[in-house]
């Protein structure tokens, strides 16, 4: 009997051994990076990187006039840009970039969420495209346009020799088709186009309904081949990389555009955007070497060890504590002012973001240098006594209670809410945090405006000051905090109509001062983002917008 | 029997119908607009309305439901809102992963739990039984997402048995694919093995103290024969019922484990479809999962009737 039992046991052991055989086949010997010593076992998943943007609608750009913008891109490692000397670059190779968000559509006119545009930046280009400093450079166009003195017509020449990924030359017809299609789809900003005329095979003339000296940023909209119908399954553009394959929830693979118009670019032969479910999975991938780079939050960047260089840049969105200005007690300016004196952005930045963030006091991002009013950053220095006084003047001597609704997938906003709850206790104000999923947030808070307060980062559709300040106009559809000021509306109309650059800058600064004074929201910070690149890789280019440019990434030679 | 079977099949379809109505209504009532999620908040209201009518989301709820149901009956599940690809192809691409993972996990559960359960029952209250019992309890107590992360760290990052996140596609390298699935399958299997071992042990012990076992021993029947010919027959029905529940649960996509191991299976697709309010995809997935659960239950009932004459319907 004992013998029989032993035999049985042996048979089972044998079966187990057979089941374990495939193990031998799946150890990946190509993983060269030794795992970092830190372990992620219990970090709470935050589904996105710090840049929690409310998605904007068109690919973005900066104002042409005035070399307005440079996003402060401090790099804690050696982050060279394209301007760097061409030595030490080993062209070719493939690169895997991890993302915790995923593109949904590949058709550039269908894909307008920020997460999708971030990736499609490598596939598509407009007549103009932004550079790392946020200035607009000619792309599909051979040069910047001729703008008529009345700012009603923009005339472009198509770049000579430029081709689509399918090898066809780009013509004025393609440009007209693209702009007409995009305008027909009601893409923001293009409703000002009256007509697009083909002057000759390489020249297009765009006529506007209303004069606009600042129309160029909207012309970053993708130029696509005329009448091509399969953009969503096999996108074709003029960008540095061409489409290879897309498997939803797994990977978007791009290959080098060998006939790209920019000399020497891109350096890499193949770029894979690997789509991960959350930051924990991404961190494990980075540590195991199955991903070469990713945008990570400050917490993750700390855990990566010495195998990676970390490039810090701004997220180019303003994190705000938004009040619903139409509901009590936030319809009372004194209450909003009181809370502005209590909420301390410095404490939030040091507690939630490890001190990595740029304090702001206006809806405009610091990256928009010419327009950003830095004098407003400290407009509300922490002052508990003043806050209490304002609250009692408003009739809330004993404080009040309210709810902060936060989208649960943005850990950074949830954490910020917790810090704010504690800060408000000092003046007797009680805040509860209500976490909702992002679709609910969009519906309830953003669209229906049914909330008391919320925390979100707000970015602009493009790098013109309008895209940050238009939502404060009383009737704006993006004015989800219900700010209503006749003075602001008048001044905004004046600022937009002004064509002299120095006056424009002054008027847009006045608008920011008005918003700061009325305190519809508390402006907290431009959160820092971190791009991790495996050692041996370089060339990360920070942009003052939410994009990842793979064309300048290279292996060091 | 025929009458019983046909009644069960009618119940099966009725359940699926109710599940689909509930899912449809629930997801249409909770807040969340897929159109704005696709277009972003900066979109113009006109653009949003255009896309809404393009997707047919502007029509009344009952009309949309009936249309989807008609499609389902004809084997056309509609298009995903998020990816604008056919739901059918999205699910078909995921099924091999989920099903392979499930089969592997079930294989591990059966080959480990049944012998260990019987062994524990025979060695009841001895040291080895106590040790195995404690190990089982530990497996039950540790949440499986944590076990998953632990496995990734130990077997992936430290021992390099597999590269975390480097999912191997079954078309490319089947052996590598099974190898990558082995660890998540083990994570799914371990707590279920613990449940089954406890269950089987109790069932076998209950039988071992029964009169007919004493009779068998007194007749001089060998130990192994008593277990295999007499005890197991009577101990199996409740175990099969439990195994059926476990199988249904595993086949419907082990959502958490698929997330932890970044496996592109049904579970991950479900999460993404919910967080994007991708109605056609959610509805189809929920009906699929409900079908698996109801169908496996149905199979278990039929199987039990086949092996146990006492519960046969007359």
Furnish the topology, listing elements before pairings.
The complex is a heterodimer of chains A (557) and B (314).
Chain A: H1 2-20, H2 23-26, E1 53-54, E2 89-90, E3 94-99, H3 114-120, E4 128-130, E5 136-138, E6 146-147, E7 153-157, H4 172-184, E8 193-200, E9 203-208, E10 241-247, E11 251-256, E12 270-275, H5 279-288, E13 293-296, H6 298-302, E14 308-323, H7 333-342, H8 345-352, E15 357-359, H9 384-393, E16 401-407, H10 411-425, E17 430-436, H11 438-447, E18 453-458, H12 465-469, H13 486-497, H14 501-518, E19 521-534, E20 537-538, E21 554-556
Helix pairs in contact in A: 7-9, 8-10, 13-14
Chain B: H1 2-29, H2 34-39, H3 45-54, H4 61-73, H5 87-122, H6 127-141, H7 144-158, H8 174-208, H9 211-218, H10 223-251, H11 255-260, H12 266-275, H13 279-307
Helix pairs in contact in B: 1-13, 5-6, 5-8, 5-10, 6-8, 7-8, 8-10, 9-10, 10-13, 12-13
GO molecular function (chain A): peptide transmembrane transporter activity
Keywords (chain A): Plasmid, Signal, Transport
Domain Solute-binding protein family (chain A): 136-478
Summarize the structure.
Chain B: Residues 95-300 form the ABC transmembrane type-1 domain. Chain B: Keywords: Cell membrane, Membrane, Plasmid, Transmembrane, Transmembrane helix, Transport. Chain A contains 14 helices and 21 strands.
Descriptive overview:
Chain A: Residues 136-478 form the Solute-binding protein family domain. Chain A: This is ABC transporter substrate-binding protein. Chain A: Keywords: Plasmid, Signal, Transport. Chain A has 557 residues and is an alpha+beta fold. Chain A is 26% helix and 21% strand. Chain A has 14 helices and 21 strands. In chain A, the strands form four sheets. In chain A, strands 1, 3, 10, 11, 12, 13, 14, 15, 16, 17, 18 and 19 form a twelve-stranded mixed beta sheet that branches. A four-stranded antiparallel beta sheet of chain A has the order 6-7-9-8, covered by helices on one side. In chain A, a hairpin with a 5-residue loop joins strand 4 and strand 5 (136-138). Chain B has 314 residues and is an all-alpha fold. Chain B has one domain (87-307): MetI-like (MetI-like fold). In chain B, 76% of the residues lie in helices and 0% in strands. Classes of the chains: A alpha+beta (557), B mainly alpha (314). At the A-B interface, helix 1, helix 2, helix 5 and helix 11 of A face helix 2, helix 3, helix 5, helix 7 and helix 8 of B.
